[in-house]
Design brief:
There is one protein chain. The protein is an alpha+beta fold and about 375 residues long. The protein folds into 4 domains: about 90 residues, conserved putative lor/sdh protein from methanococcus maripaludis s2 fold (Beta Barrel); about 90 residues, Elongation Factor Tu (Ef-tu), domain 3, CATH 2.40.30; about 60 residues, OB fold (Dihydrolipoamide Acetyltransferase, E2P); about 70 residues, Orthogonal Bundle (Helix Hairpins), CATH 1.10.287. Helix content is about 25%, strand content about 45%. The chain contains 3 helices and 23 strands. It has a 6-stranded antiparallel barrel. Strands 10-9-5-12 form a 4-stranded antiparallel β-sheet, with no helix packed on it. β18 and β19 form a beta hairpin. α2 runs antiparallel to α3. It is elongated. About 20% of the residues are buried.
Length: about 375
C-alpha cells in the first residue's frame, strides 16, 4: 500500500497518531456533550417535614375461636354399625349431629366389632401356641442344665438348648404384645368424645365405610373461647401475658373480660403483625366461634414522617416494594435518586414512611416518569 501524501511529502507516523488522537478526543467530547445536554424533566418537589408525634386509639378487630377443636377419627377401618341417637326438637329420635352437646367419654359411634374380635382371637391363639413351644423349650433347657452340670452334655448341645429357650421366650413376649394391641384396637371400635363440647359437624352415617383418615365428627370446646387479633410492633409493649383486656361483641352485648394467653414471638411475613390470643370464660356460651369482637388497648403515641401519596412509586428491581425519588444535587444540577421506603398508615393524601429524613426533598409530581439518575427541574 502506498503512503498517504500531502503536498508531495510523505506523512510521518507521529503526525498520524496525533491526528487520530485528536479525532478520538473530539468524538468523546461530543458524547459527553450529548449526556450533559439531556433535558431535565419538570417535576414538583415536596420537602419532608419533621417528625410528628401522633396518638392512635388502639381498637383491633378480633375473631372468636373455640378454645379447642378436634376432628375425631376411627383408629381402624370398618363399617359404621351405630351412630348415637338423640331426641330432636320435634320429639323424635335422630342421629347425633351439628349443635348437639356431648359429655366427655360419651360414645358417639362405633364400627363393626366382629372383625376386631377375630383379630383378638387370632392373637390369643398365636400366644397359646408360642407359650406351648416355650414350655417345651424350658423343660429341655432344664434337662440340659442338669446334664451339663454333671458333664454328661457337651457345651455346643447346652448352648443350642439355651438359644431355643431364649428364642421361644422372645416369641412369647411378642405374642403378648400383639394380643394387647388387638385388644386396644377392639376398644377403639367405640368413638368417644375426648372432652365435653358441641358437635360442629358429622360426616358419617349408619353403614358408612370408614378408614383411619376419615373424619367422623368435629367437636369444639366453647366453655372458654379465644379472641385472636393482630397487633403491630409499636404496640407490643402494651400487650403482655396475663394482661386483662375488655372485649366488646358487635351485637351490643355487655363487654366481657379476658386475659392475654399467647403473643407470637415473630411477625407474620406478609402483613408484619404479631398474633395475640385472649382467653375468655364462656360458661353461658353466648360467645360463638366466628363472631367478630373489638378489643381496645387505649391510646399510644408514636412518631411518623409523612409525605404525599403521589410521591410513592414501585421499586424498580422489586415490584412488590415501594420507593420515592429523592432530589439531590450533582455537579450543580438536580438529579432524581431512587430510594426504597417502608410504608405506614395513610391519612388523607399523606402516608407515613420510613427511609427518608426531615429536610430532604422528594418528587411529589412526575415521579412515575423518572428513572434513577435522571436530571430534574423543580417547578412551582
Amino acid at each position: 500500500m502506498k503512503p498517504f501524501l500531502i503536498s508531495g511529502h510523505r506523512l510521518k507516523a507521529p503526525l498520524v497518531l496525533v491526528f487520530l488522537s485528536a479525532a478520538a478526543m473530539l468524538d468523546g467530547c461530543s458524547h459527553v456533550s450529548q449526556i450533559t445536554s439531556q433535558s431535565p424533566r419538570a417535576v414538583r418537589l415536596a420537602t419532608v417535614a419533621g417528625t410528628e408525634m401522633a396518638a392512635e386509639t388502639l381498637h383491633y378487630s378480633a375473631s372468636i375461636l373455640p378454645y379447642a377443636q378436634v376432628e375425631l377419627m376411627f383408629r381402624s377401618s370398618g363399617y359404621v354399625t351405630n351412630v348415637r341417637q338423640v331426641r330432636g326438637a320435634d320429639g323424635r329420635t335422630r342421629n347425633l349431629g351439628t349443635g348437639d352437646y356431648v359429655e366427655q367419654g360419651l360414645t358417639l359411634a362405633h364400627i363393626r366389632r366382629e372383625d376386631l374380635q377375630n383379630q383378638v382371637a387370632q392373637a390369643q391363639a398365636q400366644l397359646d401356641q408360642v407359650t406351648a413351644h416355650h414350655s417345651e423349650a424350658d423343660q429341655d433347657f432344664q434337662r440340659a442344665k442338669a446334664l451339663y452340670s454333671t458333664q454328661s452334655l457337651t457345651k455346643p448341645d447346652y448352648d443350642r438348648s439355651q438359644e431355643a429357650f431364649n428364642a421361644t421366650q422372645a416369641a412369647m413376649d411378642n405374642a403378648k404384645a400383639a394380643l394387647l394391641q388387638s385388644q386396644l384396637t377392639l376398644g377403639d371400635a367405640d368413638l368417644k368424645a375426648p372432652f365435653s363440647g358441641y358437635i360442629l359437624s358429622r360426616n358419617i352415617d349408619l353403614g358408612s365405610l370408614v378408614s383411619p383418615s376419615t373424619s367422623a365428627f368435629t367437636i369444639v370446646d366453647i366453655d372458654r373461647v379465644k379472641a385472636a387479633f393482630g397487633a403491630p410492633d409499636y404496640v407490643l409493649n402494651r400487650v403482655r401475658l396475663g394482661q386483662e383486656l375488655t372485649i366488646q361483641i358487635e351485637n351490643d352485648a355487655a363487654p366481657v373480660k379476658g386475659r392475654v394467653t399467647s403473643v407470637s414471638p415473630a411477625a407474620d411475613t406478609r402483613n408484619r403483625i404479631f398474633a395475640v390470643e385472649v382467653t375468655v370464660s364462656n360458661r353461658d356460651r353466648h360467645l360463638k366461634p366466628g363472631m367478630i369482637a373489638s378489643i381496645g388497648l387505649g391510646e399510644v403515641p408514636h412518631s411518623s414522617i409523612s409525605i404525599p401519596l403521589s410521591a410513592i412509586v414501585s421499586f424498580p428491581s422489586e415490584p412488590d416494594h415501594f420507593a420515592v425519588m429523592v432530589a439531590q444535587e450533582r455537579a450543580g444540577r438536580l438529579v432524581a435518586n431512587v430510594r426504597k421506603v417502608q410504608l405506614g398508615p395513610t391519612h388523607d393524601n399523606s402516608v407515613a414512611v420510613e427511609g427518608v429524613q426531615p429536610g430532604e426533598r422528594v418528587v411529589s409530581v412526575g415521579a412515575q416518569l423518572l428513572k434513577d439518575g435522571d436530571p430534574i427541574q423543580a417547578i412551582p
